[in-house]
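sry for the spam today, last one i promise. struct tokens for design, 209 residues
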């Protein structure tokens, strides 16, 4: 496909919208970049200036309490951290399922239903310390915490899609807040369906004769 075309399809031939806010990128089996090999990325923001996203399925070796001392003795401190991408890994970002207004910053946004992106950790720290532990597990909002992010410059993500590096599907909160996020690549491929169910099961793309 001509990379200058305004119309795109992903590597399965599925049409891709001009803005991928609120979509998942699923890495193709041929994408060998170690930062993105067998990953699922939630695109939080995508426009003519580039794209910003979070890798969902790369657990870190540390927990939240290891880097936020104030939470080290709390329930929230036991939360798993994820490597959100190769850029600025000293920054901490959060995805959650919804919080009271006082616990959100003016910079928060919702790329799709049931998922809120919070770039300012300080705005939710008090909530995690004081309010989050108090309710029953089933009533607690869901949280995931990410070190760093994935970023693309102007036209870079469009080029990678044209080069068949990514599959694209609409994002949903169930996969983001999966009980086993490390299995996100397999889960996302299974949702893509067809041939990609086989890839999810085998880990490679069958040859077509």
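last one done:
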């Amino acid at each position: 496909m001509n990379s200058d075309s305004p119309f795109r399809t992903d590597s399965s031939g599925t049409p891709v919208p001009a803005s991928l806010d609120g979509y998942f990128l699923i890495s193709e089996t041929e994408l060998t970049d170690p930062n993105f090999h067998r990953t699922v990325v939630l695109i939080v923001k995508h426009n003519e200036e580039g794209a910003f996203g979070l890798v969902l399925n790369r657990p870190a070796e540390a927990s939240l309490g290891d880097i936020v001392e104030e939470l080290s003795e709390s329930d929230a401190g036991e939360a798993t951290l994820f490597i959100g991408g190769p850029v600025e890994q000293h920054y901490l970002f959060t995805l959650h399922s919804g919080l009271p207004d006082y616990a959100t910053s003016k910079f928060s946004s919702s790329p799709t239903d049931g998922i809120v992106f919070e770039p300012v950790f300080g705005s939710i720290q008090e909530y995690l310390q004081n309010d989050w532990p108090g309710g029953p597990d089933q009533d607690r909002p869901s949280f995931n915490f990410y070190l760093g992010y994935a970023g693309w410059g102007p036209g870079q993500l469009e080029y990678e899609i044209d080069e068949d590096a990514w599959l694209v599907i609409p994002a949903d909160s169930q996969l983001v807040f999966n009980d086993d996020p490390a299995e996100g690549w397999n889960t996302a491929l299974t949702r893509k369906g067809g041939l990609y169910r086989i890839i999810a099961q085998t880990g490679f793309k069958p040859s077509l004769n």
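The two ends are 23 Å apart (CA to CA). ok im logging off now
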